[in-house]
Amino acid sequence: GENVEQHPSTLSVQEGDSAVIKCTYSDSASNYFPWYKQELGKRPQLIIDIRSNVGEKKDQRIAVTLNKTAKHFSLHITETQPEDSAVYFCAARGNFNKFYFGSGTKLNVKP
Amino acid sequence: DGGITQSPKYLFRKEGQNVTLSCEQNLNHDAMYWYRQDPGQGLRLIYYSQIVNDFQKGDIAEGYSVSREKKESFPLTVTSAQKNPTAFYLCASSTSGTRDNVLTFGAGSRLTVL
């Protein structure tokens, strides 16, 4: 099955700086890669996603890049704000519509 | 609550007891999933169902059981065979198409074994 690895596990940045979270996946058949933000005690919420036929996607301060050859994808957050502090998960959709998740990155944005 | 309702939000269980977590969706989604979340770990797939009356084991199915008798409902039973059941359980659903099947989560159920 698919294996998704995510780094770093914790990330601390100063407000206004950029944050980058990286994920790798193992199954070349995976074709859809969502990113979720989870605030403490709440459900994960989709923040951005990318499909395998696209190399980059941007939504305001958030962008995702995908390198299919290297099997890695990354989340970029620019001009970070304290409300960006949360746990972020990457995921890959494999065969049979199964979603596999990374272990999460706890982002702390210091004011 | 985003079309997926999980209940109860908090549940306490004594060792040796079975408990059932409810998950109901009104999104008309074909696929439904149960994930387990432990502190500092990602979401691990317990069971998933692509269609009514059919479901498959995920990566950590031992000690759990499910049913899918209705499209809207996918209850999870945590049996006494599950050795470490204390965790946060998340139900999710998606369409079954290959293009637009965004995964939507419920608010979660936190199970504590006393």
Largest sheet of chain B: 7 strands, mixed
As a percent range, the share of strand residues of chain A is over 45%
> Which stretches of chain B are poorly predicted, pLDDT < 50 over at least 5 residues?
none
Mean pLDDT of chain B: 91
Low-confidence sequence ranges of chain A: none
- Biggest pleated-sheet summary of chain A: 6 strands, mixed
**Number of E strands of chain A:** 11
Structural class by SSE content of chain A: mainly beta
Q: Which overall shape of chain A is indicated by the principal axes computed on the Cα atoms?
A: globular
What would the principal axes of the Cα set say about the shape of chain B? globular
Mean pLDDT of chain A: 94
Oligomeric state of the chains? heterodimer
Structural class of chain B: mainly beta
Order of helices and strands of chain B: EEEEEEEEEEE
Quote the distance from N terminus to C terminus of chain A: 41 Å
